[in-house]
Every structure is written in structure tokens, then in C-alpha cells.
Amino acid sequence: MAWDFETDPQYQEQLDWADEFVRSEVEPLDLIWPHEQFTPLDGTRRKAVEPLKEQVRQRGLWATHLGPELGGQGHGQLKLALLNEILGRSSWAPVVFGCQAPDTGNAEIIAHFGTATQKERYLRPLLDGEIFSSYSMTEPQAGADPSRFETRATRDGDGWVVNGWKYFSSNAATSSFLIVMAVTDPDVSVYKGMSMFLVPSDTPGIEIVRNVGLYGEPMNGGSHALIRYHDVRVPDDDLLGGAGQAFAIAQTRLGGGRIHHAMRTIGLAQKALDMMCERALSRVTAGSALSDKQFVQGYIADSYAQLTQFRLLVLYTAWEIDKYQDYQRVRKDIATVKVVMPTVLHDIAWRAMQVHGALGVTNEMPFLTMIHGAGVMGLADGPTEVHKMTVAKQVLRDHTPTDDMWPTQWIPRLAADAREKYAEFLEHEVGNR
Ligand SMILES: Cc1cc2nc3c(=O)[nH]c(=O)nc-3n(C[C@H](O)[C@H](O)[C@H](O)COP(=O)(O)OP(=O)(O)OC[C@H]3O[C@@H](n4cnc5c(N)ncnc54)[C@H](O)[C@@H]3O)c2cc1C
């Protein structure tokens, strides 16, 4: 019997250590440097953050998703899921543990498809936590529909020249390099005609036109760049994988990225549920604690049920990725996780906010940030609607149409077949009456 929902005791000890460490050492960073986690460390922050990273390394929990040859532990996705549930509570924690988005996905594709020189130049410092990276795929006129991508890379001597617009390239302004997707062969479908390039962020011709901010952030003070690539020269050596391979590579990147967001979302939703329960037990109104009111009990029960279903789905999907080592094969469940994630976080954070009354909607509590985060989860790495279509197509693949006028489960015919199958017993039964 191979099904097992227990964590082995040695790893549980590691998780217990991480839980305490994140609460006491890392969550305070969220309050003193709330938007600095993707900015390379300066003198003061380095003094505070570097010793924390060192403790994580000593503990063997640095970049656990990558193999030992890349400086990770090779723990795989399931163990990463259990760890990420803890890290999801804090915006700094993934950086302190060397497993932050978008760098995890970016590191993964360089690890899979990069040459030895590319790994040395880009992957090594990325894994050491010294630099950040940005993934530059979405374009202003085209996000969910890649067939509308226009950024072009044209051949020029022993390299390429990139021209075009990119939008929502997260952390581009603080990155050391960008992974840029561009059309290299306009005569074939984008699925075969786009390529990926590793481009140092200071390459001449890269213009960050605006750093788009999310709701609540100051204008031009955000971290999602609108970029204009003007005649950006890229040598052949910086082509990632082969020409025309961008989509195959993107599937690896986005598969990992989506499930990692989901792992962290479990932690965030659990935090909201914990806050809801604390408030329900503490606040007395109309003669009893909120936890005695049936409406509030309903909020708690619904939240627990939603979170537990989601968590099991995420852990199962992580287990599948480890087992098959093939994101394509696990595509249906990764897309399902992506579809469910925004609703779970939204619903639980909303109920927690409601139970906190007026305090819940203030900037002194994190609920509206979480609800906004749920909206982001419904768009980043592809909109929910598109993932629902993927789920449906994959589910339908396991089914076939019937030529018959009636469905195969039409009861009158099934009953007639059943009567015929057991006719001798029925005759006997009638005879005995
Ligand atoms: C916080 C954040 C960070 C991001 N980071 C990055 C990044 O680092 N790099 C990067 O390249 N991109 C990034 N993105 C962009 C993200 O991948 C795109 O927003 C996403 O792919 C959707 O593209 P779009 O915004 O152009 O929406 P559109 O493609 O215009 O879609 C808009 C809406 O139309 C509907 N829709 C779209 N297609 C369909 C369809 N086929 N069927 C039915 N309905 C549909 C959906 O409701 C969808 O939300 C980020 C986005 C966010 C919000």
C-alpha cells in the first residue's frame, strides 16, 4: 500500500525548524523592508539577511528544489511544497530560502536547457542568491494569446538583434538578466517559431519605459516593467535551448512556476484562517464569542474544507511531478491547481476580513493585500479561463462519444441488460413467489 500522508520524521524536524525560523527571524523583514526583497542586497540589508541565508544553507534547506550539482538538495517538488507552505506566509521568506518566483522557474529552465557556459554565467550567481532574473514574455497587445506576439529576433552575423515591446516583465528593473522570448521564424506557427534568449539587463537598447505598479503601489513605483527592446544585440551563445524551442521550454518554466505559487498560497490562506479563528474566539458580541455564532462557524468550516481540498490537490500534483518528472504529463492537475488557487485564497481572506469587522478592511491588517493577491493569481502565468479550457480538454481526452441515440448509462437499457444477465435467478425468484 503506497499511499501515505505522513512526512518522514527527519524532514518534519526540518519543517518545524523552518516554521519557527520564519516566524521569528524572517517575518519581521516584511515589516521593515516590505518591497525590497528583489533588490540586490546593500550594506545594511546584507548584514541582516546574509546570516539568515547562511543558517538556511547550514540547515540544508537552501534552493531545495534543485539537484546537488546545482547547489540545491534535490528534494523535489513534494518536499518543496511542504516547505513552501511555511514560506508562503512571508514575502521575504522565499528569498531567504533561495526559492523565490520568478527565479525558481528561470533557474529551472537554465538548469534543463542551458549550456555549461550559460549555467556558469547566469545560473550559478542566481542560485547563490546574489542576483535576480526576469522573465520577459508577455506583450502589451498579447498575453494569453501567444500567436499575437510580435517581438522579433532577426539573424545578424553570428548573433541576433531583438526589437519589440514586452509588458509585465516582473523585477526587470532589479534583475541582472532577462529571459526574452522572441519570434525567430515568422513563417511557422509561434509554437515552432519562437526562441528564448538570456540577455544581460544592462545590454544597450533595453529601455524600461515604466515600472507598472499593482493596486496600492505608487505610480511608476512598481516592479512589473514595460520594456522597449531597440536593436538589442544578442550573441548566439545566449540562445537558450535551440532556435524555435521557446514554447517547449516555457512549458517547463510555467509548470514549475504555477505549482510553486500554489504551494505558497496554501501558507497564505492558512494564515488568514488562523487569524479568522483567533478573532472568532476572542471577540464577544451579542452575548457570546463570534466563534459561537453559526454564520461564523460556517465561515470557518467552509474555509477549512476549501483549504484542505486545495492542499491535498497541490501535494498530490507535486508528488506526480516528482514521480513522472514530466510537466506535460501532469498538465491537467497543474492547470486545475491554477484554476482553484485564486478562489481559495480570495474566499478565505474575505471571510477572515469580514470577521475582523472594520479593522479587517484597514491597512493595519493584511486581508485586502491577500484578496488583491488572489486577483493576481488569477492572471499571472495565464488567466483562469485559459487554464479551465486546458483542464476540460485534458479531461475530455479520457472520454469518447457514443454513436447511440441514448447515453451509455441510460437506465432502461442497462436494466434490460441486467435482467438478461441474471435471467435464470429472476426466473427462479418468480417461481418461488
Ligand atoms: C503580478 C503579475 C506578474 C506577472 N509577471 C509576468 C512576468 O514576469 N513575465 C511575463 O512575461 N508576464 C507576466 N505577467 C503577465 C501575465 O502572464 C499575463 O497577464 C497573462 O498571461 C494574461 O495576459 P493579459 O494580461 O494580456 O490578458 P489578456 O490576454 O488580454 O486576457 C484578458 C482576459 O480575457 C479573458 N481571456 C483571455 N483569453 C481567453 C480565452 N482564450 N478564453 C476565454 N477568456 C479569455 C480572461 O478573462 C483574461 O483575464 C504577470 C502578470 C501579473 C498580474
Mean pLDDT value: 93
Query: Helix- and strand-based class?
Result: alpha+beta
Helix and strand pattern: HHHHHHEEEEHEEEEHEEHHHHHHH
The CATH topology annotation of the largest domain reads as Butyryl-CoA Dehydrogenase, subunit A, domain 3
The structural domain count equals 3
Strand content: 5-15%
Distinct small molecules bound, one entry per kind: flavin-adenine dinucleotide
Architecture (CATH level 2) name of the largest domain: Up-down Bundle
- List segments where confidence is low: pLDDT < 50 over at least 5 consecutive residues: none
Give a quick account of the main beta sheet: strands, pairing sense, barrel closure: 4 strands, mixed
Give the radius of gyration: 25 Å
* Count of DSSP H/I helices: 15
Straight-line distance between termini: 47 Å
Tell me the helix content. Answer: 40-55%
Number of strands: 10
Which CATH C-level class of the largest domain is it? Mainly Alpha
Basic shape: globular
Strand order within the widest sheet?
Answer: 1-4-5-8
State the CATH superfamily name of the largest domain.
Answer: Butyryl-CoA Dehydrogenase, subunit A, domain 3
